[in-house]
Queue: 3 jobs
Job 1
Amino acid sequence: MGKPSDLIQGTLDLLILKTISVEPRHGWAIAKRIQQVTDEQLQVTQGALYPALHRLEQQGWIKAQWKESETGREAKFYTLTRAGAVQLRKELEQWERLSNAVGLVIRLV
Amino acid sequence: MGKPSDLIQGTLDLLILKTISVEPRHGWAIAKRIQQVTDEQLQVTQGALYPALHRLEQQGWIKAQWKESETGREAKFYTLTRAGAVQLRKELEQWERLSNAVGLVIRLV
DNA sequence: CTTCGATACCTAAACAGTTTATACATCATG
DNA sequence: CATGATGTATAAACTGTTTAGGTATCGAAG
C-alpha cells in the first residue's frame, strides 16, 4: 500500500554534505544521524546512501579515509572538501529557494 | 552547464492538485499559474506536465473535460475529484512532514 | 500572404536517483 | 553457534524528470 517515501528526491546530497560539515562521519553514522535528527521521518536506505557517497566523492566534494569507528571497527570516514563546502552553500540556497516556491503555491496557489 | 533544477522531484503532483483545487484549469494554464505564483522559480516543462496529468487522471484524482479557454480555443480543463481532494490532503501533509525534516537536518544536523 | 510568437496538446529516448533485494564480514549477546 | 547490530557494497527495477521532438490554431507584423 502506498509508498512511505522516505526521502525527497535530490535532497540526499544536501543532507549528507550538511551532516559531515559538522564533523567527519562514516556512511553508517551519516544515515543514523539523519534518521535520529529527523525523529525517524527521513530514512536513508543503504541502496541510496552508498551510491550517493560515491557520487559526491567523484565530484570532489567529499573525501574518504579509513579509520577506526566508535565501536572499534574500520569504517570509511568522509570529510567535506573545500569544493564541497561551496557546493553545500549552493545546495542550501537552492533548497531554500525551491521549497519556498512550493510553499508559495500551497499558500497562494 | 549544471542543472537549474526547475522542480523538486515528486512535488509536481502536489502542485497540480493544489492549483486546480481553487478552480478547474487546463494544462497550459496550470503550468503558467505555477510559474507566475513562484515568480518563475518553478518551471513546469511540458514533458513533465502532460505525463503527470495523465498519471493523476488514471489514478482517478482529476477529471478532464474539453471546454473553451479564455482565448476562445478548445482546451482540456481538469477538475479535482473527491478522491483527488483526499490525495491532496495526504500530499500536503507529507510535504510538510518531509520538508520540515530536511529543515531539521539543516539546522541541527 | 506568410512568417513568427503565443497558445495548446502530446510523446519518446535518455537520464538520474530512488527502492528493493541481495551479498559479505565482524563483533557482541544470549 | 545463532541472531542482531554494525558496516560496506552492488544490481535490477522503477519513477519521474529533462531534452527534444511533433502537431495545430490564432493573431500580429512585415
Job 2
Amino acid sequence: MQDGNASAVSAGEKISGSREKGLNRVLEILEFLHTTQRAIGIGDLAKGVNAPRSTTYTLVRSLVDAGLLEMESDGNRVYFGKKLYLYGMDYVRGNDLLRRGRQEVDNLSRETGETSELCMLQSGRYTIVHASPGTRPFRISSATGLQIPLPWTASGRLLLAGLERTEIEGMVSDDDLVLPDGRKLRLDDFVADIGKAEVTGYCVTSGLVDAYTKCLAAPVFSAPGKVEATMCLVVPIDTSEERTGELIGLLRDRAARLSIAA
Amino acid sequence: MQDGNASAVSAGEKISGSREKGLNRVLEILEFLHTTQRAIGIGDLAKGVNAPRSTTYTLVRSLVDAGLLEMESDGNRVYFGKKLYLYGMDYVRGNDLLRRGRQEVDNLSRETGETSELCMLQSGRYTIVHASPGTRPFRISSATGLQIPLPWTASGRLLLAGLERTEIEGMVSDDDLVLPDGRKLRLDDFVADIGKAEVTGYCVTSGLVDAYTKCLAAPVFSAPGKVEATMCLVVPIDTSEERTGELIGLLRDRAARLSIAA
DNA sequence: TACACTCGTCTCTTGTAAGAGACAAAATCT
DNA sequence: AGATTTTGTCTCTTACAAGAGACGAGTGTA
C-alpha cells in the first residue's frame, strides 16, 4: 500500500548521469516551470533540468501538442498550458474539501480582513493550496502553490499530528530546521510542539517565517484523528491577546465545519 | 514554425498496436480521467486506454509519486492530484486573459442572471474554459472543461474567424456537422456563418445544442483580427428580440474590454 | 567581416523501458 | 467450499526512445 517505497526517498537525484526516462524528464520540466513561475526558452529549460537539448525539444513538442504546455507567441519560450488548467479544475470538482476550503478561506479573510490560507501536505511538503490576501496596507507574502519547510509554520505542526517520530524525521531535513533568521530549531522541540498542537486542537507560532507576523492555524480532519488540511490566519505579531483569541475561536469553528463532510 | 506537423494530423490512433511511448500513455491516461470525471481502478484504467496492465501499474505509480495523480483512500482507484491543481493555478496566474475573463464571466452571469461562459480553442477543439451558472430555475447544462463540436456553437463560428476554408475543414470532422437532434449542417453554410460572424462582430445560434436555448457570443481579441476567446450567454430560445439585443450589447462591451490588454 | 553565441532539426547507436506473461493473494460469485 | 475474476508484483526480451553530436541558419558584438 504505497508505503515508503524505494523511489520516494526524497532527493535521490542519482548524480544526474545517463539515460533518463522520458516521463521523469517531463515531471522535472513541470516542476521546474512551477518554480520559475514564468515562460522560459527551451534551451534554458534543458539547462534547468539538465537534460540534453535534443531530448528536451522532443519532449516539449509532445507536451505542447498535448496542450499541457503552451508556446509563447515568440515561438520559443514555453509555460503551462490550458490542459493543465482543465485538469486542475477537474481536481477541484472532485475534491469537496478543497472546493469548500477555498470558499471558507475567502470568507474568512473577507470577514476578518486578515490574510487567510488553506494548507495541505503535498508529497511530504507543506503547501499553501489557496490563499486570500486580506486588507492590511502591508501585504503579507503568501502565494498559492508556495512550498515552505514544515517547521517554519503553525500548520506544519498540525499536519504532522499523529505521526511517529521516525516518520517526522523522514519528512524534515536538517535545512528545514534552520529558520529564515538563521536560528536553528531543535528537532525535539519541534516534535514536542506537534504533540502539544494535537491535544490543544490549534497552533500559534510567532516570528518564525518573519519577525513581524504570527501564524494561527486550526486542523481540518478527513477522518477522526486524520489531519487532512489546515486553515490559518497570518496576522501582525503585535495583535492583542484578546483579538488573537477571537480569531482562533473563529478559525477553529470554520475548520471544524470543513471537517464534517469528509 | 509549429505548422501542421506530422503528429498533429488529428485522430491517427495508429490502430493501437505495439510498443507505445510511456509519455503518450500518460497523456492518454490524463485525457481518459478527464472524460470519466471520477476516480477509476487501475485495471479499468488500463482497459480504458487499452494499455497493458503491467505498464499501467508502473506509470500510475510514477504519477502518484509525483503527485499528478492521487490514490483514493480505497487504495485502488486513482484520479487527478494536487500537483495538477497547482500547475493549473500557475497557468491562471500567468494568463491575464483567463484570469480577467473568469471575472467578467462571473460578473456577467450575476448581473444578467443568465448562464455565461468563456470559451477558447484547445488543440483545435472548442472548450468551455469557465462557466457561471446563472439563476434560472432550470439549469442550463454547461461545465468547465466540456468539449463540444465547433459547428454546434455560436462561439465556434467566431473562434474560426479569419481561417482559410481548408484550415476550417481540417478542424471539423463529418461527425461534428451532425447536430444533437440529427440534422446535418452543410459545411458551406458553416463557413458562410463564420464569415458573417466575423464582419458583424457577434454571433447568435438558436436551438443547435438543444431545442430550448439560444447562444449569444462575442469575440475577445488578443491582437487585431486574432480571436483568442469568446464570451457567451446561453438563454432560453423564447427570449424577446429586445432583451436579446440588450444582452448582445452588454456582451460585446465586456468582450471588448477584455480584448484591450492583450 | 570575422567570432561566438543560441536555436531548431536531423541522423545514428545503444541502453533500457514497454510489454507479455506467469504468479500468489484477495475479492467476488455460485 | 470450490470456481472465477481481479489485483498487485515480478521476470525476461526486444523494439525503440533517449542521447550524442553534427549541421545550417539566425543573432548579437567586437
Job 3
Amino acid sequence: MTTLRQAQGPGAAQASGSNGQSKSQRAYHWIKERIANQEFTPGYRLVLGTIAGELDMSVVPVREAIRQLEAEGLVMFERNVGARVSMVDDTQYRFSMQALSILEGAATALAARRLTADDIRRARAINELMIETLDHFDPRAFTRLNQEFHAALFEKTANPRMLDLVENEWARLGHLRDSTFAFIPGRAQESVREHENILQLIESSAPLGEIEKAARRHRSATLDAYMIHEHPDEALGLPAF
Amino acid sequence: MTTLRQAQGPGAAQASGSNGQSKSQRAYHWIKERIANQEFTPGYRLVLGTIAGELDMSVVPVREAIRQLEAEGLVMFERNVGARVSMVDDTQYRFSMQALSILEGAATALAARRLTADDIRRARAINELMIETLDHFDPRAFTRLNQEFHAALFEKTANPRMLDLVENEWARLGHLRDSTFAFIPGRAQESVREHENILQLIESSAPLGEIEKAARRHRSATLDAYMIHEHPDEALGLPAF
DNA sequence: CTGCGACCGATGATATACGATTTCGGATAC
DNA sequence: GTATCCGAAATCGTATATCATCGGTCGCAG
C-alpha cells in the first residue's frame, strides 16, 4: 500500500523534476534562513519530525540538511538527542574576524598581480557606490557592498584554496552577525578610504607584502573599532605587523 | 556466512547498545580508511548499496557518512549520480600547502607570546628527536614529528579559530599525500635548522611579524623544494613577503 | 554505416516503519 | 520535603520499500 502520502500527487516523490533541487537542499536552505533571521535563536532545538512536517517531507532529507549545517558549524549535534542552533558569542565573532583578516590579506596579495585595469575599475566603482550610500547609511547594504568590493579584489587569487577558505569564513561571519557596521557606523568612512588606498597599492604594483599588510590591517581595523566600541576593556593580542 | 545478518533480528536496529557508536560513524571511518589506504583511489565510485552490503548495514548510514566525507572534501558528490573519491592532483596539494603556510605562520605568531619556557623546551626536544632520526631517515616518522613540533608551537594560539583552520588544513594535506619528505629528503636538514631558528625568534621575543614571516617561509620553503624537485618548470607566484 | 530515440538496469532520493534511547514527570520511599 | 525510581512520551537511528533519474544499449531510420 503506497500510502497515498503527499498532496503532491503520485509522481512527485523526487523533487528535481518539478522544482529543480532536492528536498534535502530545500530543507537546508529553509533552516539556514530561519537561523539567519533569528527565528531559530541560538540554543533552539531543531526537531526532525517537526521541521519535516512543516516542509511537507519526510525526516530523511531534514536529517541530511541538519548534518550539513553541522558540518558548517551552524548547529551542534548530539547523538540520540538532536541538533540545536550553535551558541555564538562575541568571542567567536572576533576570532573569525581575525582569521578572516589573515586569510583575506593573503588572498588579496595573491590576486594583486592578476588584476587587470578593468578589475580595478570595477572595484573602484563599487567603492564609489559605498561612498554614496554613506549619506543614508544602511549597514546591511554597506556590508553587502563591502563584501562585493573585497570579492572583486581576491576572486582572481592565484590560489583557489585560499578563495575557498575566505568565502567559507565570510559565510561563517554572516551567520554570527548580520553586519558589523550596524555596530560601529563611524568605521564606514575610514573603510572606504582604506579601500582606495588598497586599490592604489595594487595599481602601483606595490610589493605584495605591502598589499597583504594593508588588506589585513584594513580588516583588523574594523575589528579593533568594534572592540573599542563594544569591549573597551579587552584585547585580542593580534599583532598589527 | 553471515548474510542472514542481523542475527539481532528485526529489533536492535540501534547500534549503540552493543558497540558504542553509530553505524554512520562506523561507515565514515571505514570509508575514510579505505581512501587513506589507497584502496579507494581517486575517481573510485562509492556505491551506497555495495558499501552498505560490505558493512552489513542499510544504505542510510552509509549515505550520511558519504555526505560527511563530502563536507570534508574527500569525495565529490553529484546529485542522482553518486559519490566518487576526489581527484587530488598536485595542484591542489600545492595550493593547500601554501594556504597552510599562511595559516600556520599566523597561528604561530599568535601563539608566540603565550609560550612558556617549558613549551619551548618541549618543542626543542621534538626537534632534537627529528635531528636524530636524520640518520636512518624515515619520511613518515619525520613528518609526524614535524607535525608535533609545529603543533607544540601553535596549539596555544590566542585564536582557537585559527587552530581549527590549521588543523583542518593539515588533515586535508594528510589525505592528499602521506609525506612530503618522502619526495624531497634533502629538505629535512634545512627544516630542522629553521625550526631552531623559529624557536630562537620566539625565545627572544622577536617582533611577531618576524615570527610569522619565519614560520611562513619555513613551510613555503618546503613547498618550493618540492616544486623544484618535482615541477622545476612551474611557479606558484607566492609572495615571500 | 551512422545518428537519434526508446527501453532497461543500476543506483540514488525519499517515504514509511519500528526498535532504541533519552528525557521528563509523577509516584513512592525515606 | 526531598531524593529516587519507574514508566510514558518524544525523538532519534536505522531498516526496508518505492519511485526517480541517470547512463548505457539496442533498434530503427536515414
